[in-house]
Automatic annotation (TrEMBL):
Similarity comment text for this entry: Belongs to the GHMP kinase family. Homoserine kinase subfamily.
Gene3D superfamilies cross-referenced by the UniProt entry: 3.30.230.10, GHMP kinase, C-terminal domain
Protein name (record): Homoserine kinase
Enzyme Commission (EC) number: 2.7.1.39
UniProt KW keywords: Amino-acid biosynthesis, ATP-binding, Cytoplasm, Kinase, Nucleotide-binding, Threonine biosynthesis, Transferase
InterPro entries, alphabetized: GHMP_kinase_C_dom (IPR013750), GHMP_kinase_C_sf (IPR036554), GHMP_kinase_N_dom (IPR006204), GHMP_knse_ATP-bd_CS (IPR006203), Homoserine_kinase (IPR000870), Ribosomal_Su5_D2-typ_SF (IPR020568), Ribsml_uS5_D2-typ_fold_subgr (IPR014721)
GHMP kinase C-terminal domain location: 217-288
Source organism (scientific name): Micrococcus endophyticus
Amino acid sequence: MPAPRTLAAGTAVVVAVPATSANLGPGFDSMGLALELRDEVSLTVVDGPDVAEVTGEGADVLPRDGSHLILRLAHEHLRARGVRAPGLHLRAVNRIPHARGLGSSAAAVVAAYAAAEALLPAADRRPPEALLEAATDFEGHPDNVAPALVGGATVSWTRDDDARPATAPLRLHERIVPVVAIPDTELSTHAARGVLPESVPHAVAAAQAGRAALLVHALAERPELLMAGTRDWLHQDPRAAAMTASAALVAGLRERGHAAVVSGAGPTVLALCDGAEAAEQAAAAARALTADDAHAWRVLVPAVAADGVRVEPLHHG
Ligand SMILES: Nc1ncnc2c1ncn2[C@@H]1O[C@H](COP(=O)(O)OP(=O)(O)OP(=O)(O)O)[C@@H](O)[C@H]1O
Ligand SMILES: N[C@@H](CCO)C(=O)O
């Protein structure tokens, strides 16, 4: 086997990857939405050892050496593409909170693979959507990585012929405005998946499939149907005991007419609102409902991220 080509020191790239909210209620492990809250990552090839500089979310706990997830995955990706970097210098500005249901791990995986890909010579680079399979393999499900790669709202599935992931864009009505309420407590996706039942009754599966189909219609054509279209039975109830404050906030917002769901594996709460005024009302209701909660909640009204990961190759040495 020929020795892998070595990238020149100084070769550099900057990527900006959006937060994502998965499930959207009934679209468990399949639907997702990209949000304008981005981590920024720059990666530079160096002759010395791997180094990670991290500011923002996770800065107090993430490693500063080659064991950082982004550095590990970037090296892995380069090896898979037949090149090597002697060392990599990572600068990460993290804005997506970790283990809250806003796709931080998917964002890190997508950032690592997209940045590594952009370090390759222009003729060899593949577009972000070509990274879906590798990113899904790492995450275990495609619902966050797909919108992080391509932006907007997506529905993803596993192909029948070769079991590879695939994704398609979902049309989003221009009136839809997302609101997120983020508590200061973490819940790992791994832990949240551990409480799900092995199987569900046929009637539950049938009801869930109907609401997922309705959600697609509500997102595209009839935002006024979002309340009905965001109803879920598969994951939110089984997980409620692991995030009681989030379950109470979802219920409180829905009682007030806002289409609230648990974002991803939680504990963030997402409301899909019909217009800017409804979004302001949902944000105000979320602030009021969490004002006396022991957890500090942040309520944001991020725009939908129309594009996924942004990649800017800086310099090829
Ligand atoms: N920017 C990052 N750099 C390095 N590691 C990260 C980064 N973001 C997330 N991680 C790792 O991923 C973990 C969080 O992943 P997890 O899947 O539990 O939650 P999430 O992706 O934030 O939420 P969800 O999958 O429900 O949307 C963090 O604790 C950290 O180990
Ligand atoms: N669909 C996933 C999203 C979190 O990664 C879950 O709810 O477990």
